[in-house]
Amino acid sequence: MQQADWWRGAVLYQVYPRSFADSDSDGIGDLPGLLARLDHIAGLGVDGIWLCPVYASPQRDFGYDVTDHCAIDTTFGTLEDFDQVLQAAHARGLKVLVDLVGGHTSDQHPWFAASRRGRAAPTADWYVWADPSPDGTPPNNWLSVFGGSAWSWEPRRRQYYLHHFLPSQPTLNLQHPACLEALLDVARFWLDRGVDGFRLDAVDFLTHDLRLRSNPAVPPPGGVVPAKLFALQRHDHDMIQPASMAVLRRIRALLDEYPGTVALGEVSSQDGAFDRIAAYTGTPDLLHMAYTLRPLRHGFDRPTLQALLRDAIETCARGWPCWSFSNHDVERAATRWAPDGQADPAFTRLLLALLLSLPGSACLYQGEELGLPEAQVQEEDLRDPFGIAYWPEFRGRDGSRTPMPWETEERFAGFTPSWSAPWLPVPPAHRALAVDAQERDPDSTLRFARALLRLRRAEPALRHGRAAPLDLPAPLFGFVRETADRSVTLVFNLSAASVALPPDLAGMQGLGSFGAVQGGLPAHGFALLVPAMARVPETV
Ligand code: TEU
């Protein structure tokens, strides 16, 4: 494989820096904290890091509201700290992707501060401004992802501005040439510093219909939850516009000036997400890869997994998917997909095995390697504005953003040296799953994740092999990953009872410790199998 193709089949470890490791006792994670814990990531055997935003920001949406794309927020450290992390990561063979929040800024950004003051400013048209409807209401019916109208009134301009997320996150007008150039300058700044690429935030929202046509309503399915209002429209005009392709092409052209750098796009979970992944990644002038939130939208059952595998195979034929089961925007998969909502180690490991064996690349979210369940954050501890607005119907995203537990016995599980509580509490259930405890336990999820990642690196079929479905009796689900000279069979037991393998599989050899047990699989067990007498990679 060419070095420039390192991202194909790569695993990226997603760092949510606010919750990774705190070095300066303010209860918030930071870059020196990350630097001190980098060996944990390198030791997992991943290929790189995706670092969530660390830019100057009022932190209303925890970094996704940027006031200076080329400065590090003092909460996280300095540019020198960033350079040190980058250098130390590279020294450990880890690539570093940073978040490029290109669709919007903070309302505190100097570009917006000038734009909202009046129409004469150089950045006057860098945001999406529109006159009110004749009755003074917003120009159309577009809704914010976080609820309510996507338009807010600015008395100084006597116009509305567009925001797909919080009112404090005005949407950039990337169809304005100078605005797009400014974004490309930001990208250039980080590429010149040596980053290996970007995770592009909210790709579906990069451009909008210039005629500002209203979206068609979708008939309400009964009992409307306010947090889900966004789902009650078809987003024909505010999202997924052909004009976004031109923006992505410019970003890709810039990346191509820096060989080996890549773009990973975030695709929303609206219908057709896999088609969009294929469209965004299907030609070499667009994104390298893309992931979608909630790739399994209908829960974790056999038909849904079979459909997922079909989608995965099709998407690989047309583009390049990256799998992300858990991240800072969704409930942790170990809880979300657990049969009774209770994460248990066997099920959690089955999820990890699936994540790391689907064809494509993958993101591993911090704590996923520990099998962390979703945290139950109490109302008084909520920090996510999305959750605060809609509690209790929707609990927001704090449950997947609690601090990493490093040391079982330490105050706040070793996340912060502070005597006062970190920005989100450390859930009691996470303490026992701390990194140090799992390092000591030979049967821990952490050790398991590391073995699996090592196997993926050693076994080209798992990393690059094509995938083909296997026709197995329920409750088994499985597929094959194969290269020209090697075939690995993956079998998953989706039931909470043990099950025997069909005779042809029972006779196969396990890859390392990932074999069948007496011809069968325990509850939520799985196996990675090769023909008997086949070579097994030495590292296993
Ligand atoms: O998320 C964009 C995204 O697609 C959201 O629609 C997502 O559905 C939302 O977070 C609800 O779960 C990105 C970031 O990942 C997210 O953290 C930011 O809040 C958002 O952009 C705005 O910048």
UniProtKB/TrEMBL annotation:
<comment type="similarity">
    <text>Belongs to the glycosyl hydrolase 13 family.</text>
</comment>
<feature type="domain" description="Glycosyl hydrolase family 13 catalytic">
    <location>
        <begin position="14"/>
        <end position="401"/>
    </location>
</feature>
<dbReference type="InterPro" id="IPR045857">
    <property type="entry name" value="O16G_dom_2"/>
</dbReference>
<protein>
    <submittedName>
        <fullName>DUF3459 domain-containing protein</fullName>
    </submittedName>
</protein>
<dbReference type="InterPro" id="IPR006047">
    <property type="entry name" value="GH13_cat_dom"/>
</dbReference>
<keyword id="KW-0326">Glycosidase</keyword>
<keyword id="KW-0378">Hydrolase</keyword>
<dbReference type="GO" id="GO:0004556">
    <property type="term" value="F:alpha-amylase activity"/>
</dbReference>
<dbReference type="InterPro" id="IPR017853">
    <property type="entry name" value="GH"/>
</dbReference>
<dbReference type="Pfam" id="PF00128">
    <property type="entry name" value="Alpha-amylase"/>
</dbReference>
<dbReference type="GO" id="GO:0009313">
    <property type="term" value="P:oligosaccharide catabolic process"/>
</dbReference>
